[in-house]
Amino acid sequence: MSIKQRLLLWLLVPLLGLSVVFIGGTYAVERAAIEHYQDLRLRQIATGIPPRLKTADFRAINVKLFHGRDDFLLQVWTGDREIYRSTIDRGLPRFTQPGFGIRSIGGERWKVYLRHAGPYTIQVGQSLEERSALARERALHLVAPLILLFVVIALFTPLAVTAGLRTLHRISRELDARHIDRLNPLDPTGEPAEIQPLVQAINTLLNRLGRAAGAQQRFLADASHELRTPLAGLQLQVQMVEQAGSDAERRNGLEALKASVKRTGRLVEQLLATSRLDAEGSVASRGPITINTIVREALVRLDPLAQAKRIDIGLVHDDEAVVPGDGDELMLLVLNLIDNAIRYTPVGGQVDVALWRGNGTFDLTVEDSGPGIPQAERTRAFDRFFRGAGHTVAGSGLGLAIAKRIADRHAAAITLEDAASLGGLCVRVRFPQDRPSTRPQFADPEQNRLA
To answer: With 90 as the cut, is the pLDDT of residue 364 above it?
Structure first.
């Protein structure tokens, strides 16, 4: 059932019910009022005759009501003798009980009022059929405009509903005209107040779709650009393995091929992560996340990489840090920062990770003993695919870009500094504090060393 049909059903059915009740009630009340009025007229006619009249004077009395349409039967007696009757074609027997009563004459029922006035007995009657006809006529005159009014309302309601839904039809046409390359927002100017939230929600959705489409286009462009060289290298290494002249050359070629496949896989993962973060407008889940747990898990996962380079890595300061956010994204941030530190730290170097509680903030720092990033390049270091001059370490240039995007989505600030103790780079991520820390914890650096 359409919205229009539902609105018409909700409007017209109650309107019909109320119309029947109101018109029926008005008709009944009006008939009762007219009946009461006619009773008053019977009494007024009877009481309006003076007690001292000559017989000839009664012939001059002619009682008409409602412009002569409904005649009243007037009869006057003295004793048992009827001395006057207003019409000769019908008459009522004299009754003795004063007041109102119902009498029948030849199968026709009459409403009668009898009064004693001096020597006279005055009796006034009116046919019940005539009374009912008059009451119906007067009541219908009253309710006819009401019936017409309700009919007009019933006819106007569908037009009003159609006009009210015209805005939705227009919005539907405008949305149908949108294209994935042209997702400009709807103009809310002049829209009804009830439609404004809908337009705003649609514009929000269009904005998200635009971001998703843009992220998809950037992903395709980045993937085609960044994967071209690794795939060409993989193809060359496969050819070298196929052309190897000895088992030793073949083994070396396969090891190199495995390393290239691993680097290419990491590049694809980072491209997908970048695309996903670009497409999403805000953090989907904002539960309380304990950063300490994430850091420890990341250190365990990256320990083999550090072991391979004999890097001394550990958690040197461990204040409890609880922040609102998405656990998966925060894990990706920590993994990228520690992975970058390990990759750019020379063999036998050192990487220190720390969590600090400040005044309303939590700081995550990752320091290394690598070459660092020159001051002039730090502004661009968060750009996608940026790789500083002189770097020979294999990488995609996406790690810091991903970390920056996740930090922004969590209202955190990420900065690059000189590592005061290790001489390399220090990456600091400052999170807003969700709630006061209840357990400041200072770790023993030696107990948290993984390598």
So the answer is: yes
Backbone angles phi and psi of 240, in degrees to 5:
-65, -40
How is the chain split into domains, by residue range? 3-135, 182-281, 287-448
Fold category of 3-135 in CATH? Beta-Lactamase (3.30.450)
Does residue 411 come out as left (phi exceeding 0), alpha (psi in the -120 to 50 range) or beta?
left
- In 57-118, DSSP assigns E strands to 64-65, 70-71, 73-78, 81-85, 99-105, 108-117
pLDDT tens digit sequence for 121-175: 888 888 888 888 887 787 788 778 878 888 888 888 888 888 777 788 888 888 8
d(CA 131, CA 133): 5
Please count the other Cβ atoms lying within 10 Å of the Cβ belonging to residue 419. 21
Name every residue whose Cβ is closer than 8 Å to that of residue 37 and which is 6 or more positions away in sequence. none
What does the block give as tokens for 233? 């290298």
Is residue 338 within 8 A of residue 304, CB to CB? The reply is no
Q: Beta strand 312-318 with 350-357: parallel, antiparallel or unpaired?
A: parallel
Please give the radius of gyration of the chain, using alpha carbons only, rounded to the nearest integer: 50
325 neighbors 365 (Cβ within 8 angstroms): no
Separation CA 62–CA 51 (nearest Å): 17
* Percent of the chain whose pLDDT exceeds 70: 80
Q: Residue 266: its pLDDT value, please? A: 67
Please tell me the distance from the alpha carbon of residue 323 to that of residue 291, in angstroms, as a whole number. Answer: 7
Highest mean pLDDT among 18-27, 224-233, 300-309, 372-381: 300-309
**CA–CA distance, 424 with 293 (Å, rounded to integer):** 26
**How much is the average pLDDT of 11-15?**
83
pLDDT at position 316:
92
DSSP letter for 244, please: -
Q: Which of helix, strand or coil describes residue 191?
A: coil
Average pLDDT, the chain: 78
Tokens 């009630």: give the residue.
25
Model confidence at 292, pLDDT cuts 50, 70, 90, reads very high
pLDDT surpasses 50 at 189: yes
Alpha carbon separation from 352 to 323, 419, 423 (Å, rounded): 21, 10, 12
Angle made by CA atoms 147, 152, 157, in degrees to the nearest 5:
125
Q: Collapsing DSSP states into helix, strand and coil, what is residue 45?
A: helix
Q: What angle do CA 230, 231, 236 make, to 5 degrees?
A: 95
Contacts 24+ apart (CB under 8 A), 1-6: 3/165, 3/168, 4/158, 4/161, 4/162, 4/165
Q: Does domain 287-448 correspond to CATH entry 3.30.565.10? A: yes
Does the pLDDT of residue 438 top 70, yes or no?
no
